[in-house]
């Protein structure tokens, strides 16, 4: 790989941005493609799939073989709320390769005993702006039922175009949530991206079943794109 391409890959990696290195197998010619550049690329459809899956591989098009090497940041999951659902959710997410952070200023809930082996921050979200520096490979699950805790992370996640934004609550609760978020300047199109009620509709009843439903929805959003 040329030094310029390696530099581009390293720069993207540090910025948690996905990038593909496309190689013409016959000629050896290479070039980099970012997610912002794929729309005009001849391999657009294939690149869309690979940016979602993160998988490298050989593509044949009109008799020309091309190798696409994907460099995709590891997905992150930020959970707002140290509740029973979160206790069941974070081990599943970790097993699926997600870097997990749980945030809840309520110290009675956010205890190391309840959340062993995961990054746990017993702070108000507004006091940890570096954690709310979300990106397109971050998923957010807000599960506190408390707008004082949930709303700011939801706003930041929508502004950053996180690949998944979900929130716990009834339809009535969510309608009020949408009003509050739109009052911050978010558009109707942006707030429509919130998955609420959170999780796939599998009839989940227990916290463990809800956690499975949430993780299924997160993975579907990551691998298949927004519904």
List the SSEs and their pairings:
Layout: H1 3-14, E1 19-24, E2 30-34, H2 44-53, E3 57-61, E4 64-71, E5 76-80, H3 84-95, E6 99-103, E7 119-121, E8 138-142, H4 147-159, E9 164-167, H5 171-182, H6 188-191, H7 207-224
Parallel strand pairs: 5-6, 5-8, 6-7, 8-9
Antiparallel strand pairs: 1-2, 1-4, 3-4
Helix pairs in contact: 3-7
Structure in words:
With 227 residues, this protein is an alpha/beta fold. It has 2 domains: 3-71, no CATH class; 76-224, 3-Layer(aba) Sandwich (Rossmann fold), CATH 3.40.50.720. 36% of the residues lie in helices and 20% in strands. The protein is built from 7 helices and 9 strands, in the order αββαβββαβββαβααα. Strands 7-6-5-8-9 form a 5-stranded parallel sheet, sandwiched between helices. It has a 4-stranded antiparallel sheet with strand order 2-1-4-3, with helices on both faces. Helix 3 links the parallel strand 5 and strand 6. Helix 3 crosses helix 7 (207-224). The longest helix is centred in the C-terminal third of the chain and has 18 residues, at 207-224. The protein is elongated, with a radius of gyration of 19 Å. The relative contact order is 0.11.
Q: What would you say the CATH architecture of the largest domain is?
A: 3-Layer(aba) Sandwich
Radius of gyration (CA) equals: 19 Å
Helix-strand string: HEEHEEEHEEEHEHHH
| Overall 3D shape | elongated
Secondary structure category: alpha/beta
* Share of residues in helices: 25-40%
Beta-strand percentage range: 15-25%
CATH first level of the largest domain: Alpha Beta
Q: Strand arrangement, largest sheet?
A: 7-6-5-8-9
Low confidence ranges = none
At CATH level 3, the topology of the largest domain is Rossmann fold
Q: How far apart lie the N and C ends?
A: 37 Å
CATH superfamily of the largest domain: NAD(P)-binding Rossmann-like Domain
The total number of structural domains is: 2
Total count of strands = 9
